[in-house]
Fold each of these.
Amino acid sequence: MARKANTGSADAANQGRLKQIALTYKMTRKADPKVGLVVAGVGIVVLGVLLAIGFLIGHPVYLGILGFVLGLLAAAIVFGRRAERAAFGQMEGQPGAAAAVLQNVGRGWTTTPAVAMNRSQDVVHRAVGRAGIVLVAEGNPNRVKPLLAAEKKRMSRVVVDVPVTDIIVGDGEGMVPLKKVRTTMLKLPRVLTGPQVTVANDRLRAMGDLMSNMPLPKGPMPKGMRMPRGGKMR
């Protein structure tokens, strides 16, 4: 029974991966119609080269198997890069794109989206990790700089001796393209210990963010809205 259960879970996991690959391919093909030809071409070329070498040295079977494996690997790498490029191309310019990137930076980072925002919907996101605090801003560079300065001043009240790095997303001078935000953050030197990161996160959470500090609207409660149990009207 245990073996059947393990086999069933493995089959389900494999089916899930295949569905995910198929979905990724469909999404990539919309932005990159030649992705299928390019990926297949890379795999065939690698297989062909190693197979030719195999015939020359008298070991076509061994080199053919090796070429098949390396061809699949090369095709997977090319597909992954083109899929990533297509995904960033679709996200670029969309509100909240940087927050989506921050959510996938990797383990060891705690992301809080939209810690600061102005009326023009320029926004600042915060990530905390071993490299310190990283503030990532989306919007007009001239408008987000005051936002970044105000957020730094606000954080300085609760966190001390924690390095803060600014990143403004964009293609202009001194800005970081969306597709390079993750690599830029991962290249930052790790200067904090695990406990120091925990302390910084706890203090920043206690300070609150934009959503938790947003005031509730005044006036009568709309029809159909119920108070939570234990809640009191003030």
Note: The chain is about 55% helix and 10% strand.
Amino acid sequence: MASVVQWIQGTRPRTLPNSIAPVVVGAAAAHHIDEFKPLHTALALVVSVAFQIGVNYANDYSDGIRGTDDNRVGPFRLTGSGAAEPAKVRLAAFIALGIGAVAGLALVAVSGFWWLLALGAVCIAGAWFYTGGKRPYGYAGLGEIAVFLFFGPAAVLGTLYVQTGEITGIGIGSSIAMGAISAAVLVANNLRDIPTDAVSGKRTLAVVLGDKDTRRLYLALVAVPFLIALGMTVRVPYALLGFLAAPVLLPAVRRVASGRGGRDLIPVLQFTGIAMLAWAVLVSAGLALD
């Protein structure tokens, strides 16, 4: 039986900033127009984190039963390692997605925007079919696009909209920033797994592009939030605070740019995730100061 620590590892803690940072900056965008609602933000955070954990467990289950994780270089996996029965990992994914769905229903109820139930259904389907089902889109090089959309526009603008009933320019810019750096986390993960994914038939974008171009893509994506912060200064000068996240990202950029691979790329996910959260918090502070 898998231990409690192993189940926690199965949530992939290094990736959780992907779900926290968009809600932080979305709430800050709502606060910027004096429409911040704590309850709405809290519910949005539960939805985002629960869905993130759900997709991580679902990915663990689906990749594990396909054999994709049999010879992986990356962090611990419950199914692939044999530490947990596949059915239990699948159940954990369903429970996490169910918690997110209940919180989402409550959020829709308090906000009154019932059409957002459709967006929630799309998010749940996206979480499962990333690596699940007969034709998972994560095996067809579409994972980065999905991550950009779900952790960028969907999470940021969704958090903003349920509080304000509108979409702002600051919100759109922030959603692009969050989507880009969230996709960079997946790019780094898939860069590390190119050798094993290619053998197992998992045709990720990294496998399609190859090592060199995947590194270029990562570097381009992590630059986007800083370009967005610079653009924001036209309306919010304090958005320059976002640049204070650059030193946090630097170790990851060095590892990717220097050509390091295998286990040496594992910390890149953590550094990128922390930099994403730092950017969100710093830009949010800038919006509050404006």
Note: The chain is about 75% helix and 0% strand.
Amino acid sequence: MSASSESMPTPSSRTASPPSAARASLLSWLGVAPFLLFALLFLILPTGMLMVGAFQDAQGHFTLNNIVRLFDDNILGAYKISLQISAASAILGTLLGLLLALAAIRGGLPAWIRPTLTTFSGVASNFAGIPLAFAFLSTLGRIGLVTMLLRKYLDFDLYASGFSILSFAGLTLTYLYFQVPLMVLIIAPAVEGLKDEWREACESLGGSGFAYWRHIALPVLWPSMVGAALLLFANAFGAVATAYALTGSSLNIVTILLYAQIHGDVLHDQNLGYALALGMVLITGSANAGYIWLRKRSQKEAA
């Protein structure tokens, strides 16, 4: 009788659980409140404002003229160049970053290579804007260090060969500085997920290294690679500070055109800028949605 009475919950214990659970829930919501506030102020409200502004004129009246003007040749050309640069830097960044991650993780290199590469990638993936543009101008500009060294010691004029840091190739090369490290950080967990037993099983069945990569490794890495490429594409498509500081207005890309419409003195048309930003949000949002879907798929396959 005494044992059963000891096991039964007392009325005070039954009434104490709900308040403690409520307090824990309240503390959890307070913990995420700064994130929710940040998302509301810097993501949700600005996105809502540009969506509304894209369908208004300067007087605040409803109009579709801003959307129609997105199909002007100049604006379509800006979107085309931006898409091409983003795609080129994303594809090259994906391939180079994958090779670097494979060499550091699976290449049998010294142990210090991997943490060094990871640390550098964490820093370089966030190095953009005016400092990055200045670094590339100082290195590959007309009087940059590498340009002058090639001219002095190899008698090779880089700019006479057709290269220019202010061109499509120059901006793509600059973007690769932060695209490749970002790819290394994204693809490293997927590369780590390749098990040695898979290669050993392939070899025991008479398969070659090429067969292992074709039928086992690449199919496993493929969703992560495509998802990372989409994320790199969105990352490059939304970059404005690096492109503006490097090329100014010499290259007609959509981010520079957007900046000119919102802050420019001659081309100032804020509502057209909202429409340009809305188009960018749709493109980058689609790329990010594809990345999230492929990442979940790769995680399920790895599990």
Note: Confidence is low (pLDDT under 50) at residues 1-7, 12-16.
